[in-house]
Specification:
498 residues, 17 helices, mainly alpha, globular, 81% helix, 2 domains
């Protein structure tokens, strides 16, 4: 959670400096390149979650040899991805300046940005991803988090110094690439020593045989996080209602939504590993109780967090882009829809955790494909006419469909959830969320600087949290009390001799 907080803070500092120093067009270009580089992660999609699911049992049973074989198999796969990534970056460096964004500067200017931004991505596949997955599966994510915290802080400090010194955007990004390359190297050294990943083990692809089923799941998430910028970038050349400046606008709101989602997914990643351990040990009663408490907690947390975001985001954006006049950043309809879509995505994370922990990739593959296709189709159909709002609607429609499909699947499989209870759970959260946002819209408060905004956001968060918790206690008392008791049991106990 500390990592996510620091990442969010850093994520707001650097784009604002980029916009103020280099302009919205360059910030939009950097966002587009980063997004396009990220498309190569499709090649590893499916292996990550499948690999972690395969690691739960040998970790729980302390089967070192099988763990080493899985690690070797996954590492071998990612080495191939690394070489493909390098080739993809080379091709993108040639295509981006000529076909995708030809009006953003010289060929060398744009191509060099593509190569520099792509370096750290390639390094992750060479050295880091396998070891990160192993730490997450073993519920030791804190090691990766500590290393990442150090990396983010150093990168932010170096980038700020370089920007203030008047360096070009290429030099700034080169400094970032050098820092991010070190992280997977250090991670690799640590995990190999901790888990004794030595010796000659043969690759066994049967251990990750569900990787293509997991591929569909990962595509859905990938498209959820990448489609909007992709569609906006392509239509910037063909539609008068779309430009790279709108990509910059989208990226500002995307900072907010991804920051909040990353914070909540930090909980999801930890709980998924815990659920995987429980399933590996065959403790069904514990699984049901743990999931129910987790699901109710996430509804309370997400409603509080995203209601607060919907209420405060526009005042934040107004301060964040103060004196930036090349494009209008405060866009209410788009902001409300994209935050609501992300809210819906986070509400379903408990379902995702349980499905991934149980290894149910093949059974939920079709719904993942439908989600991905619907997101792209609706976004493409609506973007020319509605611009930012069009891609936001596409994201929302896809999120709604997949949430319902998960609800139906888990009613039939894994723990047989009651659909009636889940519908009641969602309706309650939606009503609270909508009522809080509407009530806040009736109050006009002037916020002109960050200090007053922080105070305003803090009060809003406390108020929305109190209302959400109170309403849940009144309407779903048993479930909410169970969540509170779960937290109380996990509080540090006072020592008898103190």
């Amino acid at each position: 959670m500390l990592l996510e907080v620091i990442t969010v803070v850093a994520g707001f500092i650097l784009p604002r400096l980029f916009i103020g120093t280099f302009g919205s067009e360059v910030n939009g270009l950097v966002s587009s390149i980063t997004s396009f580089i990220g498309y190569i992660t499709l090649l590893q999609s499916g292996v990550g979650t499948v690999a972690k699911a395969a690691m739960y049992k040998p970790l729980a049973k302390k089967d070192h040899d099988k763990l080493c074989v899985i690690a070797k198999t996954v590492e071998s796969f990612f080495r191939k991805i690394a070489f493909i990534t390098i080739a993809y970056i080379a091709v993108l460096a040639g295509l981006f300046p000529t076909l995708i964004a030809p009006d953003t500067g010289s060929f060398l200017y744009t191509a060099s940005l593509v190569v520099i931004i792509g370096v750290s991505t390639a390094a992750q596949y060479f050295f880091g991803i396998t070891h990160q997955m192993l730490l997450e599966a073993d519920q030791n994510s804190y090691v990766y988090s500590i290393l990442q915290i150090a990396t983010v802080i150093v990168n932010t400090a170096v980038s700020v110094v370089l920007i203030k010194a008047g360096c070009s955007v290429q030099i700034v990004k080169l400094g970032s690439a050098a820092i991010f390359v070190l992280r997977p190297l250090l991670l690799s050294i640590y995990t190999k020593r901790k888990y004794k990943l030595y010796g000659k083990y043969e690759v066994d692809n049967s251990l990750i045989k569900q990787r293509w089923d997991g591929f569909a799941q990962a595509i859905a998430y990938f498209i959820h996080s990448k489609t909007d910028i992709f569609v906006l970038t392509l239509f910037a050349r063909f539609s008068p209602n779309v430009s790279l400046s709108l990509v910059s606008v989208y990226s500002v709101y995307h900072l907010v939504t991804t920051g909040l989602t990353s914070f909540i997914r930090a909980i999801e990643r930890a709980v998924t590993s815990a659920l995987g351990n429980i399933i590996a040990l065959g403790e069904r009663d514990t699984l049901v109780k743990t999931f129910q408490a987790y699901n109710n907690f996430m509804h309370i947390l997400c409603t509080t967090v995203f209601a607060t975001a919907s209420i405060t985001v526009f005042k934040f954006v107004g301060i964040y882009v103060k004196n930036i006049t090349d494009v209008e950043y405060v866009q209410y309809a788009f902001g409300y829809i994209i935050i609501a879509a992300e809210y819906l995505f986070c509400l379903r994370l408990p379902y995702t955790s349980l499905i991934n922990a149980a290894g149910k990739f093949k059974e939920t593959r079709t719904s993942a494909i439908v989600e991905a296709v619907s997101n792209i189709a609706v976004s493409v159909i609506l973007v020319s006419r509605f611009g930012l709002i069009g891609v936001a609607i596409g994201t929302f429609v896809a999120m709604a469909y997949r949430t319902v499909s998960f609800m139906i699947f888990l009613h039939k499989d894994v723990i047989c959830l009651s659909i009636g209870t889940q519908i009641k759970r969602y309706l309650l959260s939606f009503v609270i969320y909508g009522a809080l946002v509407y009530a806040a819209s009736l109050i006009n408060i002037q916020i002109t600087h960050y200090v007053s905004w922080i105070l305003y956001a803090g009060i809003t968060f406390a108020a929305t949290g109190a209302v959400t918790l109170l309403v849940n206690l009144l309407i779903m008392r048993k479930e909410t009390v169970a969540v509170i008791k779960t937290f109380i049991r996990r509080l540090p106990k006072k020592r008898a001799d103190s």
